[in-house]
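3.2 Worked example (two chains)
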Amino acid sequence: MAAIGGRLASVRYGANLIAGMGTWTLSGFVPDVQEATAFGDTVKTYVQAGIGDGGTFSFSGNYDPADTAGQVALNALANTDAELTNLYFYESTSVFWRVASGGKLIITKFGSPTFGKNALATISFEGKVSAKAMERVS
């Protein structure tokens, strides 16, 4: 089994690296599963029927107020009803995840910095995948 280290991972908004990020997570597609058990069945039966959920995403790292093409640009989208198609989650320099064609990414929690008396300031973003699932591009 091949293991992948996170050292080369990154998050990009369009072609721009979002500075300082150190963690990103995709929850994955969640199908809508319905119970289809009938009278006489002795074990519950389920089917994938209904509308699936594209999942969620999050990313976080060190706060950089000078990152005008990344952190600052994303925060500028707050209260604009923006739906993104150009947010990319890289696992290496050439392999990344993006929302599939026809889908959108909606940021649901914009970055607010967190400061500690003996730590670097951090920032985090969260959102929902809408209409399509994420896809891996290699």
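3.2.1 Second chain
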Amino acid sequence: MKNRLFIINESSDSKVIGREYPQFEIFDPLVEDGLDILSRNKGREVKNDIEIFNLKLPIKSKITDILSCSLGAGGDFIISKKVFSILGDFNCSSVQFFPVSFRHKDQIYSDFFYVHFIYAFEKFLNFKESTYDEYFI
């Protein structure tokens, strides 16, 4: 049986994402939220529900469907509700999704999700026998 593998990457092109990369900053460094829990659980499943709300997208950044976020565990990023609904059609068993809200230009956005990877699937992939397709959203 042929398996399909999709690769999703955030952009670093300033024409697409704006002039800030990585795109997110901590809004208030004195406030702890779920991002701290994710940072302590890099590559491992998080067992409890968490809230991520202490983020700020700088003014020079643009809101896109996939946003880079180097503040949590390595390789994690933030996706729009649109990308979340597309991924819902697939078995993403090595990934956890957490609701996230962030500030950008005096507005709060809350229809985004933090993608937290559980590093368990790489050992099952046969990279030499795999073929790759790129899809741009």
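3.3 Remarks
The CA atoms of residues 2 and 129 lie 10 Å apart.
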